[in-house]
Amino acid sequence: MWLLRPPGVYRPQEDTWLLADALRTAPLPPRATVLDVCTGTGALAVTAGRLGAAEVTAVDVSRRAAATAWMNGWVNGVPIRTVRGHFGYLVGSESFDVVLANPPYVPAARVPDFGKARAWDAGDRGRAILDRLCAVIPLLLNDKGMALIVHSELCDSDATVHQLRGANLKAAVIARQVIPFGPVMRSRAAWLESAGLIEPGQRHEELVVIRADVTSR
């Protein structure tokens, strides 16, 4: 996979590839329609297309990210329809067989309105975007649809699972990976310790992929 990444667009990292691996083993239903939420470079959208998705839509609040996802689809021979805006805008107008999401989930003092930090900063518990996403995923899925969400265990995977189950989805953690802190997490380790989100001296996190399925309507 060839990926262009202009400045200011989130670079695919361990969380991206953990979710991509989960998608490969899911697998996609025949002729699947796929939505890639918070697409960044479009790496997951391209992965879905290469795995046989019939239609791929990528959404991001960043104009630059949306343009990059379209370009990376073109470079890799995967037609991607891109939407610049919040994923909630699609509720009521479209639904999909598969929803993929690598949303911002890094705990931060605030949720930025502009700048590249929008791709990772997500409020004091890292759930500012996750909670909104869990609320709308049932509305974005077709009958028998599936969602795959990746985030850090620091953001409370149990909360994600419980919210999805509360919306009558079957949900569980299906993949885990422990990784060392990256530059952003290292830079705010002291704050994370003071907030009780990590243990003193902890410099690693566990990534989780959560799968949610529509079982009945």
Can you characterise this structure?
- The chain has 7 helices and 7 strands, in the order H-E-H-E-H-E-E-H-E-H-E-H-H-E.
- By secondary structure, the chain is α/β, with parallel strands linked by helices.
- Strand 4, helix 4 and strand 5 form a beta-alpha-beta unit.
- Helix 1 runs parallel beside helix 2.
- The model has no long low-confidence stretch (mean pLDDT 94).
- Strands 3-2-1-4-5-7-6 form a 7-stranded mixed beta sheet, sandwiched between helices.
- The chain has one domain: Rossmann fold (3-Layer(aba) Sandwich), CATH 3.40.50.150.
Q: How much helical structure, as a percent, in the residues?
A: 25-40%
Give the full name of the CATH homologous superfamily: Vaccinia Virus protein VP39
CATH architecture label: 3-Layer(aba) Sandwich
Shape: globular
Contiguous runs where pLDDT drops below 50 for at least 5 residues: none
Order of helices and strands: HEHEHEEHEHEHHE
Q: How many separate domains?
A: 1
Number of helices: 7
What's the β-strand tally? 7
End-to-end C-alpha gap: 37 Å
Strand content: 25-35%
Largest sheet: 7 strands, mixed
Question: Could you say which structural class the secondary elements and strand pairing correspond to?
Answer: alpha/beta
Strand arrangement across the biggest beta sheet: 3-2-1-4-5-7-6
Which fold name fills CATH's third level, the topology?
Rossmann fold
CATH class: Alpha Beta
Give the integer mean of the pLDDT values: 94
Our Rg estimate from Cα atoms comes to: 16 Å
